[in-house]
Amino acid sequence: MYELSKSKIFRGKREFSVVYNRGRSYANSRLVLYVMRSSELEGRVGFAAGKKLGCAAVRNRIKRLLREAYRLTQHEIDSEYAIILVGRKKLLDAKCDEVIKAFRELCARAKINLPLARH
Questions:
Q1: N or C, where is the chain less crowded by C-beta within 10 Å?
Q2: H helices present in 34-88, as ranges
């Protein structure tokens, strides 16, 4: 139903550093959200998990959780923004619904949610 195409995911170090350096950051206990309005990187997303979190298998699990949280909520986010999701230590024992809740909380604080359509 909801798809996350590979063309929307950051690949190079340059794209990550632009958002890290020029964007704003918002954090909670489970993750950090970097947000930047950009016409060049519009609608792109990056996922990161540092080596302090554990071995490669652990870091890959965290990035899978972050990708899934973004994939399920991408329709709620304004596509003018480039964002990076960075996992924190508390994400190690989190379930997917907890990650989605933490992500939505940060999106609300960053004010990047789309306005709800009125019927």
A1: C
A2: 56-73
